[in-house]
Amino acid sequence: MKKRSTASAASPVTRCEAKTGAGGSELFLYGDIGAGWFGEGITAETVKEELATCKGALSVYINSAGGSVFEGLAIYSQLRRYDGGAVTCFVDGLAASIASIIALAGSRTEMSRASLMMIHEAQAIVLGNAGDMRKCADDLDTVTGTMRGVYTAKTGMSDKEAGALMAAETWLSAADCVAKGFADAIVADEAPDEGDGGEVAARLVDTYRNTPANLRHMPQAIALARATLTLQRDTLRRSPAGGDPRPAGRSRNGKG
Fold first, then answer.
1. In the chain, which end has fewer C-beta atoms inside a 10 angstrom radius, N or C?
2. If you ran DSSP here, which 8-state letter would residue 247 be given?
C-alpha cells in the first residue's frame, strides 16, 4: 500500500496523509484546518498534494476542531471535485466548525458512535474603527450564509432552521447527526486507532462558547490568554517595524 505524509514536524498531532491500495484510497485529516503560527495545520495545498496520489473510491477520516473557514471551504471544494471514485467521509472523533463542512463533502457521511459534530456561525478577530467593525459583520454574514448553504443542501433543512442551529453553536451527537440529516449512518465499528486523535480536538475546542464541559481540555482562562496572545501578535504584525503592509482594521482570516 502506497503511503506518504505531509504531517508537520512542528506539530506531531497534525496529520494530513493519504494511503492508496487496490481497494481505493484513504485520506486522514487529523488536526486544525489552516496553517498555524508555526506552520502546523492542514491546508488546502497539503490536501491537494495528497489527493494527487489517490485513486479509486476515497474514504476521508476526520478529527478536527476546525480552523480557517477559507482553507476549509477550499478543501470541501477539492473533495467535491475528486473524480477518482465515490467519496465517503467518516467522522472519527470530532468535526467541529469548518471541519463539519468538510465532513459533508462526500456523497455519504458516516459517524463513529463516539463522535461529535458542531456547527456555528463564522467568527473573526478584527481591529479598527466602527466602519471596520460593521464591514466585518457584513462579511461574516456572507461567509455564514455560504456555510449554511452547505448544511441545507445536505440535510434538506430550511435556511431558518439551519441558521438557528448555527446561531446557537449546536453540538450534535452521532445519533443527532443522523436524525437531522447531517450524516447518513453510524458506523458499527470503533474508529481506527491512529494515535493522537484526542489531542487534536483539544487545540480549538476550548475556545467555543458552548463546548460541553466534559470535552474541555483546558481552563477557560487559558483559552482567553491564547486569544489575547493572538491579538498581540496581530498588533505586532501590523506595526511598521513588523513590515506588514495591511491597513489598520483589516481582519485576519475568518475562523469557522
1. N
2. P
Short-list 54, 111, 121, CA closest to 86: 54
d(CA 27, CA 46): 11
Residue 236 pLDDT > 90, yes or no?
A: no
The pLDDT of residue 11 is: 40
Calculated CA dihedral for residues 153, 159, 163, 165, nearest 10 degrees? -60
pLDDT at 25 over 90: yes
Ordered by start, the domain boundaries in the chain are 2-242
> What residues form DSSP beta bridges with 112?
187
Residue 60 β-bridge partners: 27, 89
**Could you tell me which residue, 237 or 125, shows the higher pLDDT?**
125
Q: What letter would DSSP give residue 1?
A: -
pLDDT per residue as tens digits for the range 168-210: 999 999 999 999 999 999 987 544 444 444 444 445 566 666 7
In CATH, what is the architecture of 2-242?
Alpha-Beta Complex (3.90)
Cell triple for residue 182? 447531517
Could you read off the pLDDT of 68-83 as tens digits, one per residue? 999 999 999 999 999 9
pTM score of the predicted model: 0.71
Instruction: For residue 64, count other CB atoms closer than 10 A to its CB.
Output: 32
> Is 114 a residue whose pLDDT tops 60?
yes
Do strands 170-173 and 108-112 pair parallel, antiparallel, or not at all (unpaired)?
Answer: unpaired
The answer to whether residues 35 and 25 touch, using CB atoms and an 8 Å cutoff, is no
> How many Å apart are CA 7 and CA 116, to the nearest integer?
23
Residue labelled with grid coordinates 458506523: 187
